[in-house]
Amino acid sequence: MSEPEAVEAVRGRSTPRRSRAAASLLAAVYVALALAACAPSARDVSRPLVAVMNAPAQSTVRGAAERVQDVLVADGDLPFDLVSAFTMRFLESHTDLFHSRAAPSAARIARDQGADLAVMVGAPVLERQVTPSRDEASRRIDVAVALEAQVVDPQTEAIVQTLRTRTHQGSRVEANDSPLPEPSDDPTVQALIAEAAPELARSLAAELPFLFRELLIGVDGR
């Protein structure tokens, strides 16, 4: 083998190795960024901190906690701060928040983030009824949704308050020529979540300051 051919052979063997090394480096950088984003950041510790998450997992609906947090953030005059939505989505996707484990797990997330309260947002009412037309060419979809916030004390892991919206209802008629989407992806469900989220956010904004005082949050270092 000539010298140019030998050099080319070495290059050919090293290319996959370099690709693997580059991929490993990118993965390491992504993990580092995700962990850094989940670490509590410097903040005004005189203001209470709240962690809002989609939970309990068995009654969540896509986007509910995000919409509630967006409304709270848009208020701009809250007497408390919120753990970033990006951080909460990462943590809730890596935590067992099902059934009886939901409150203790939510409390642990809140403690890890230095939060004074955890708020679990779920949909205890999520009903969808499908009625085909006589010729089955179309269908009517009736949906009912209510959102609920369960407030958890991170120190005791107890649910100290439960707030619920009224039941929002909606319907649509569409061609019966395609499979139904999953309930969380149903456009009528999502429209009702968008209606209910401001109602729940207003209740939280009004109730949380009372809980801070009742639980002596911000007093004597708590």
Q: How many DSSP E strands?
A: 6
What is the domain total for the residues? 2
Structural class: alpha/beta
In round numbers, the mean pLDDT is 86
Largest sheet: 6 strands, mixed
Tell me the CATH topology of the largest domain.
Answer: Rossmann fold
CATH class of the largest domain: Alpha Beta
Percent of sequence in beta strands: 15-25%
Number of helices: 5
Poorly predicted sequence stretches spanning 5 or more consecutive residues = 6-11
CATH architecture of the largest domain: 3-Layer(aba) Sandwich
Helix content: 40-55%
| Alpha carbon gyration radius | 24 Å
Q: What is the CA-CA span between the terminal residues?
A: 75 Å
Task: Return the string of H and E elements.
Answer: HEHEHHEEEEH
Overview of the molecule:
This protein has 222 residues and is α/β, with parallel strands linked by helices. Helix content is 43%, strand content 25%. It has helices spanning 3-38, 64-75, 85-93, 102-112, 187-214, and strands at residues 49-54, 81-82, 117-132, 138-153, 158-164, 168-175.
List descriptors.
43% helix, six-stranded mixed β-sheet, 222 residues, Rossmann fold, alpha/beta
List the topology elements.
Layout: H1 3-38, E1 49-54, H2 64-75, E2 81-82, H3 85-93, H4 102-112, E3 117-132, E4 138-153, E5 158-164, E6 168-175, H5 187-214
What is the gist of this entry?
With 222 residues, the chain is α/β, with parallel strands linked by helices. It contains 5 helices and 6 strands; from the N terminus they run H-E-H-E-H-H-E-E-E-E-H.
